[in-house]
Specification:
Order of helices and strands: HHHEEEHHHHEHHEHHHH
Strand order of the largest sheet: 1-3-2
Oligomer: single chain
Number of domains: 1
Strand content: 5-15%
Largest sheet: 3 strands, mixed
Bound molecules: zinc ion
Helix content: 55-70%
Shape: globular
Distance between the termini: 73 Å
Radius of gyration: 20 Å
Mean pLDDT: 84
């Protein structure tokens, strides 16, 4: 009898929670839906669970002029700089957003996805277990709390970096790459740029955000980074951990977050566009 009542009570609670989640998604997704639909339409490779769910599950997006990018879990609000706004309170469409800001958006969406899904949804318990156990393996010298934050920021930064890089390259291939005379050099430069990701060390840090600027600055000059120029870290009050993410972490992010659409392999990561380029077609014909 007691068991039964508890079950009923639990079911009631679950139902209520479900109701609030649905309410929240229905009420607030107007801010992100324009962006999510443009991704589906124009670049389905970026239709990724973490991104769409992360954006749809925030209670609100607040755009601001002072360039703050931050996800605040307590109030479930995403603060984004004005460059991401369409002027009417919604996120711009994909094509109108600079790769640096897409990196910011992906970064903050990962925080929200972790908070609203990975830590709560039973279906994602394997991802959750990884996010709970991995920090102490990687950052043995940090406290549990700092290690968890450092890993979360490290992964969010890696995700931002890969998005920035992928979008920049995809746009170049779609413009220069489709012109016969520019195709080969565009493919060659793209291949080089994508390979930078592999050698680029990524570090976590344990001060929440301010991060938009951190990684935007760091990767603003992705183009120049292959020339060997290092951009210094801005003094933004974050504390980088001097242990870089490992191959294991990158593999996890490729698999669990990018659903294997992004990989170390340039050919795999851009196969959809490459197969349509004039210089790639001709090399295929020769085979
Ligand atoms: Zn962050």
């Amino acid at each position: 009898m007691i068991l039964l009542s508890r079950r009923v009570f639990r079911a009631g609670l679950l139902g209520l929670t479900g109701f609030f989640i649905v309410q929240s998604l229905g009420a607030q997704s107007w801010q992100s839906e324009q962006f999510i639909q443009s991704v589906r339409r124009e670049a389905p490779i970026y239709s990724l669970n973490f991104w769409a769910l992360g954006l749809r599950s925030v209670s609100r997006i607040k755009f601001n002029e002072d360039g703050v990018d931050q996800y605040r879990p307590l109030r479930n609000i995403m603060y984004l700089n004005d460059n991401l706004s369409d002027g009417g309170g919604r996120l711009k469409e994909l094509a109108k957003i600079h790769p640096n800001y897409l990196a910011t958006l992906a970064h903050e969406s990962f925080h929200s996805y972790l908070q609203n899904y990975v830590r709560k949804a039973p279906a994602l318990r394997i991802q959750n277990r990884w996010m709970l156990t991995r920090p102490k393996q990687l950052y043995r010298e940090l406290s549990d709390e700092k290690a968890a934050i450092a890993l979360e920021e490290g992964y969010a930064s890696l995700i931002g970096m890969l998005v920035q890089s992928h979008v920049s390259i995809l746009r170049m291939l779609n413009s220069s790459g489709r012109q016969e005379e520019k195709c080969e050099s565009a493919v060659s430069l793209s291949r080089k740029l994508w390979s930078v990701n592999e050698s680029q060390q990524v570090f976590g840090y344990y001060s929440r955000d301010g991060i938009g600027e951190y990684w935007t600055d760091r990767f603003k000059n992705l183009w120049s980074s292959i020339t060997g120029k290092e951009s210094g870290l801005p003094e933004d009050g974050t504390y980088p951990v001097n242990v870089a993410l490992e191959t294991l972490d990158r593999q996890w992010v490729y698999r669990e977050i990018f659903q294997n659409r992004f990989q170390d392999s340039f050919e795999e990561s851009f196969k959809e566009v490459l197969k349509d380029l004039p210089c790639m077609k001709s090399s295929e014909d020769l085979l």
